[in-house]
């Protein structure tokens, strides 16, 4: 972990000065997370900038360290010498002495340190440019993959929809096994009663309808009444069952529509959350692009 002395500044806790000093060693991803928290807690953007500039030490954000200014390079060379002359002096006192001495350093004496600084700065900027290019390339690749995945899902959905429509047309022709059966007429009830007896007389299936039709035609109203009453009763029962069946189908259709609506609402919420997340990440990336690391 980096020390406060090395960087010459006090790192404060995220929640304020009351928690005491801390040193944070954060990656770029972790800084994005912290800034995301700031957005969630509705802090002003200026607070995020202040937190970033004054209170957070960034580590692991690039492959190369940020170049030290000429003064810092010179100070590293001079610190031990000042320390030997003033062994009792503390960090603050030595820093003050170095600041006073730096003012007396000539432009010629500063040139070696300025040369080192410019060389390191050039190398640092090249690394930053490379990282930025790689990050942008990865973002474009990710966007392309997302678009390809979306197109594949859309194609699968359209294929599924077409197959479902075909299956739906087939199912319309098929009878619903749960649908109440249409009641038989009085004549067919009579035919069912007679079929077993006629089969016992070895009458084939073609002869049975002819025989029962002639018998039914010659029956009196009194003889037909039991079958007609049974047919009437069955018809009334069928009407009740059909009413219950239609009601159930309507409820199922309503339930299905509600599920579809709920599913669409969930998808819409997820899409909005993804959009907000994307906008937040884009804002953070813009923020880091505008702030010197």
UniProtKB/TrEMBL annotation:
Q: What residue ranges carry the coiled-coil annotation?
A: 228-284
UniProt cross-references to Pfam families, sorted A to Z: HMG_box
Question: Any idea which residues the entry calls the DNA-binding region?
Answer: 64-132, 180-246
Print the keywords alphabetically.
Coiled coil, DNA-binding, Nucleus
Q: Which SUPFAM superfamilies would you find in this protein's record? A: HMG-box
Tell me which residues make up the HMG box domain: 64-132, 180-246
The record's annotation in PROSITE patterns points to: HMG_BOX_2
The entry's cellular-component GO terms read: nucleus
Where does the record place Basic and acidic residues bias? 162-179
List GO molecular-function terms, semicolon-separated: DNA binding
| Stretches the record annotates as Disordered | 162-183
Q: What is this protein called?
A: High mobility group B protein 13
Which classification does the entry list for the species?
Answer: Eukaryota, Viridiplantae, Streptophyta, Embryophyta, Tracheophyta
